[in-house]
Every structure is written in structure tokens, then in C-alpha cells.
Predict the 3D structure of the following.
Amino acid sequence: MARDSQAALVALNRFGFGARGGASGDLIDAASDPRGFVKAELARPNGVLLEAPGLQSTPQLGQAVFAYQDEVKQAREAAKATAAAETPTQASADQKPALRRNLSLNAAASEVAGQMADARPADNAAKPEAMQPSPGAPPAAKPAPQPLNVIQKTFRAEALARLQRATLVECGFTERLVVFWSNHFCISASKGELARIWAGAFEREAIRPHVLGRFADMLKAVEQHPAMLFFLDNQQSLGPDSRAGQNRKRGLNENLAREIMELHTLSVGGGYTQDDVTSLARIITGWTFAGRQGQLGAPGSFVFNVNAHQPGPQILLGKTYGQAGLAQGEAALADLARHPSTANFIATKFVRHFVADDPPPSLVARLRDIFVKTDGDLKALAMALVDSDEAWKAPLTKMRSPYDFLVASGRLLARVPEDPSRYLNGLNLLGQPLWSPAGPNGFPDTNAAWAAPEGMKLRLDIAAQIGSRLGNTIDPLDLLEFAAADAASIETRRTIERAESRQQALALLLMSPEMQRR
Amino acid sequence: MIDCVENRLLASRRGLLLGGASFAAWAYLPKFARGADGHDPRLVVVILRGALDGLSTVAPIGDPDYAGLHGSIALTADGAHPATMLDSFFALHPAMPEFARMYRDKHAAVIHAVATPYRDRSHFDGQDVLESGYAGPGRVQSGWLNRALEVLPRGERVSSGLAVGPTTPLVLRGNAPTVGWAPVALPQADDDTAMRLVELYRHRDPVLATALAQGLQLDKAASGDDMKPKGGNAAAQMRQVAHGAARLMAADDGPRIAALAFDGWDTHANEGGPVGRLAFLLGGLDGALAEFESGLGERWRDAVVVVATEFGRTARINGTDGTDHGTGTMALLAGGAVKAGRVIADWPGLKLANLHEGRDLKPTTDLRSVIKGVLQGQFGLSDRVLAETVFPDSAAAKPMKGLVA
């Protein structure tokens, strides 16, 4: 039995989001057939897709941002006109608050914009969610809390849908896979308003449909998604010899092209040169999304703009791509997806995420071969990981990321969130703001990042908060049974038994190695 | 047993963490102070992640090719937002008035056309090289600042390196003890809960025990009336972080060495010239330097702040009024201990033939030489230790002389 509980911990914690509390019986189910428990989720048709009432498509959301920006602009102009025309005391009672609201709706962005030549928010403009408790502008009397704008509302709804799914699913393996791929192909919501409103849709549209599908399909969906094109500036990149490039005297931006090869496929050292970067940048000129006027298509949808595309054949990694238009880039991506360096990079990263910071080379080699043999079948990759011995034998030494930690805590407490604020604030505090990594390489995936002194102290503070909020509603020893049963160490059990209060016991349980390591 | 330990010790149980035998880390605290002249050096390392455009920060206005290459975002000595001339050739970005003042007061210097030994253009590898101190990427177990801490003479007075932010930057990771601090507003776990958890970790998970114990040590020292996060934007956050770090370092028993990182310098599009995106970030950096100056108080006299980035950006702007990943860039020094008021550069020129691979400012100074010069000036480290331990296999990059007064 002891050994089965240990295997159940691997099934639930290494592959999933940890056992759910209440009457779930997760630990017992996992102990009776650990591999079957993990694999069951992979067999569910459409189990990875996420649909919830009110979640909208990328073009719809883009249009909502454009409309919102127009509204802000109009309000600003109206305010200017009012200020110029009006006698001081005459502001009508219903107009003034409306103006103030609209102007401060976007306080963070306009604060930045005020210091910039144009009104475009800086890439790392303050993240509204992070700042909710302490509004950006320090001076003056504190105004009543502002209603959320459409961007903030959408971000929170997307976050909530994801958190609820993660809390409710049985094992959580598919959701862990979603998080892995979403971080591999990350965008950052802090890039600007479009990125923030699109962050959730990007994951639902470009990542989830392919998590148990083909890598090449995910790659194409990602690089053609407006959120990625915006995040890595490709909508601004013009072929120097394209009609738009000639007319507007602007040209290439190699940001997306470089990260496709460095971070999404081949990886650094994967055999490409600066010339290849520039060449791929030319190949994907014209990959953009339709703007607010919709000249190229429905505003906010992916379009290929032939007028921005660099004409002519290009050489990438020694191969000539002579196709015209969109097909040129699609052919290049298909080859990058199939490149041996890509297989090696993905296999290594996958094993590092799920098994150990120093991934067992035998397992990496096996997954690399499967990736190659199946032409990037990601379900086969996941299956092979679960079927391996290494993944079950390696000790549970990986640290849970802040997201894993908060979700696992919520599951154990059987609390389905109805408001994402606590999670979003916790993630900000712990250095993993949702969908907002500091760079295009995503959040780190090693213990060095997540077991740092300051991070541990903050985790403890959060655990203590949860303990004081919820401690009187639970029996900590019951929870320990749900979480680990006889796989729990004697020291952990004793520490919880001897706690001076239920509140303290819950904090200690959430911080125990059984809950922190996976 | 736990109760027993608790009852015998101290009003603040977190104090116990400092004294506990299992935290021998704190037993080897470097002693820097040079007794006789009371010189008590501080060193702050600021890493700018994302690759700073050195040609927009300290612009070679006197170079005939600069204006053409940097095009729409080039700085000028006149106009609505004139750059500050540092000498007859180089001009400082107008968003940095505090640094300009320090430079005038001879508390700041610029080293231009510098680079680490890394010659490719991946941020992440570039940052690894910058922070690890190894000549190539892939060595991420420890950073040069941590190895410098390790070789410092040990004494009783001074605490270990301070990592500012929720995670420890690579430059300060390694065997020598570090402590972390980040500005937050969150009610804290009480000391008793913390102690019990440390006790559990000691038995079951020593790595977490060490991490948590270190995390608990500094939070109180840093907290002060005005240290609640004020929210706001990236620039305000830079100031706030510097303010808290300076406060910790100013204390007599505070850390002498700190490292922090600011993100967001990857200006591929709409970088902006005298105003705009980069200007906004540089304003934040400038504010952070001013916070160090005021927060360190008396100790500023003996301090050096080093500002460095993983590589530079293309000399010619790209098609979107920004710059792509490049090579040569610049480093800034500020502080009362800097032998200052100069731009140090073996200027390679910006003619096409002089550019690295026809696109980037050619580095003529090894960034390691600059850092070695600072470490030698501040802490008296020998050439050999610097070339073997702190920056392995770097004998060719000799410490730059005369950076520290």
C-alpha cells in the first residue's frame, strides 16, 4: 500500500495538479492504477478544448479593443472641449463622472502614453490586475473604485475559466500539458491592450486544439495567431521590396523570425545563422492581422497582406523556398517543425518539465525518436512519457511553480474559484503573473527559479493567509489523507498534528514537501 | 521538541534562524571594511535584461555616421529635447538628468563599445554569459558576483549578497550565501508558523529549509513606513526597488553587495528617440540611480553601481523604427567611489566597414575588464583570482585600471 500511495503521488503531482479534496477519492483511484489514471484524460475526445459562456473569438475581442480605444479617445477629446468651452462651475453632474471614469479606465496606459510621443502604451505598461489594490496614480484623494474595462473583464473571465477547469478536472494531466505548451509558445499580456485581451483566446485557439495533436499544426496556429504576431511585432514588419515597404520606407523586424527558431523550434545552437533569421523574417512578412478599418479582412483576424510581403524566393537553412505568398512561410514552418534540432529541443524541455531539472538522457532520447517517428504527434509524446519507467522512478524533486501550487491548494480545499482575483494577485506576487512572462522565453522551469529564498517566504505568507481564511472549515489531518495518505512523511504528519491551530496546520500542510514537490 | 526550542529562544524567533548552527552560511560573512580609513565599499550590479541600445543611451553624436544609422530615433544636441553633451563627442539621453548631474559632479562614468565575450544574439544565452561570467553560454550554476563573494576575506561585520526581486538573478546565484528581498504588501506568516515549517524542512527537505530561512531574514529589515508598493508603472517600480535595496544596504550591518535586474529593454519597434518607449525606461533607470544615491546616504561615498546589459542593438534602425539584436553597447558606473566624469571608449567608428558583421557597434572593450576593474578597486581582488575564479579563463581581459578612486 505504501508503494501504491507513492505511485499515486507521482500520478497526481508529477503529471497532474494534485489530489482533489472532498469526496473525490483521487488518491485511492490513482493508487489502484496509477498509469491508467493519468492516461484516462488523454482518451477523452475534445477534453482539451475550453469553451465557457461569454468567451469570445480573437476577432471579436480585437474589435472590442478597437471600440474601447475609440471610446477613450472620444472621451478625452470631449473632456478637452469641455474644459476649453465651459465656465468652471458649469460641468453637468452626469457628464463629469463619466469623463473622469473614461479617462482613468486606462490610467496605467495613459500614464505611460503621456510620456511617449505617440499614444501607444509601452510594452511593459503596468498590468492592471497587478495593480488593482493600489491604483497607479499616487496623488489626490482616492476616487471610488473604477468599473473594469472590457480588457480587464475579458482577462479575468479567461483566467477564471482556466482556473475552474484546472480545479475541476480529475488528474489534470491535459491541463498541465496546456500550461506547458502555452508557456513554450508564450505571449505576454503586458505587451499592450490587444495582447491582454487576446491572451486567453490565444491559448484556447492556438494551443488547446493541438495539445494532443501535431506539433506542426500547433506551430502554424501559433505563428499565425494575431496575439503572437502582435507580441513579437510581425504586424509591423514589411518586406523592404514590397509595395508597402517601398511606399512607407519601412522594412523588416526580425523579432518573430528569431524567436520562431530560437525558442519555438530549433533552439539556440540548433544550427541557424543570422542570415537564416533575416531570411525567415523576409519569408513571413505580410503575416499580420486586420486593423480597425478592416481593409484587409475582419478587424482582429489573421490575414496575409501581399502588399507587405517580400517578393521572390528565399534561402533558409540551405533550402530555397520559391513559393509565392503565404505558402512560402507555411512551407518553412513545416520544415522547421520536422527539423532534428526541434525534436531534440522539445523532448529535452518536455522531460525537464515533467521529470527533473537534469532530464534523464535515455528518456529524452526515446521521446526525441518518437517525436521524429510520429512526425510530431504530441499525444504519442505524452503517452510515451507516462509509459516510461524513468518518469515513475525519479524522485519527486521538482518544485511546483506558483501556478501549480495555487491550483493544487484550491483543489485540495475543494474550492472552485468564482473570482480570479486571489489567484491573479498571488501569481503576481510569486513572480509568475498569468500569461505575462518577462520575455518570450516564458517562465523558468527549474528549481533554482521557484525555490528561491524570497519566493519561499512569499509562498509561506500566502499559505498563512489561506490558513487563516479557511482553517476553521477543515480538518487538516483529513486533508493530509486526501493529499498523500501513507505517502506522507512522519515528520509532516507530526508537524500538522502538533500545530497550535487548524489555521496553522493548514498553512503548514500547504507548505509541506508533499505539496511543494512534484 | 519544537515547543522546547521555541520557548528557550529569543523574542523574535526569526532571530534564531540567524544563530542556528545549521545556518553556517551566516558564519562566513565577508569583512570588507578597511579599518584605517573607514572605507566601507558597497557594490550594486544592475542588469538590464533585453539588450539596451547603447547608441541611444550614450549617443556618439560626433560620429559622422551616427545620425544616418540611427535615423528617426537618433539623438541630437539641439531641438526640443536635446541630449546632454558629456564631452565633445558623446551625448547622454535627455531622460537621464540625474545621471547627467552625477557625471558633472564626477560621480558617474560611461564605458562605451563594450561587450561580453558572447557574439551571438540570443537574449537568454547572452544573459547567461553576462551573469555567469563564463566565456560561453550553458554554465548556469553560479554567477560571477557570487564567486566574488566567495573569495572575499571573511569577517564578522557584514552580511551576504542581497538579491533584489522575487527570484535570485544568476549573477548572484552560487555557493556564497545570499539573501533576498522584494517589495510586497502582504500580511506575513507569523514567526511561529515560519519556525515550525523551517523545522519540518530541516528534517525532510534541507534545500527548502535553507531557502526559506534566508527568505525570512531580510523581510523585516527592509520594511519601513513607505515601502508599501505604490503600484504604478515600470519606471516607478524601478525606483521603488532601488529605494528598498538602498535602505537595506545603508545599514551598518546591511549587505555590501546587491544585484537586481530590470526587464523590458528589447526595443524592436517604436523605440523612440529623445521621448518614447526607451526614454521612459531610461527615466526609470535614472530614478533608480538617484534612489541609490539618496538611500545610501553617507555610504554613497564608497559605493559603485554598475549598469550592464547582455548585448547591444543594431547600429542601423530596422524597418519599424526600432533596433534588432546587436553586439557592442555601453556600461554605466555611478557612485562616490567611481573615478568619474569621463566616457571611456576606444571608439571603433560606425562606418560600415567598422561595424561588427556589417551591422552592430564593434566591441573594443571586454565588459569583464570593466567589472574586474571595479571588483579590484572596491575589494582588492587579485588579477589571478579574477581571471580564474570570478571570470574563469579570462586572463586576456585584464582589469581596467583607475575606475575606482
Notes: Residues 107 and 138 of chain A are 11 Å apart (CA to CA). DSSP finds 28 helices and four strands in chain A. Residues 341-393 of chain A form one domain. Chain A has a mean pLDDT of 88.
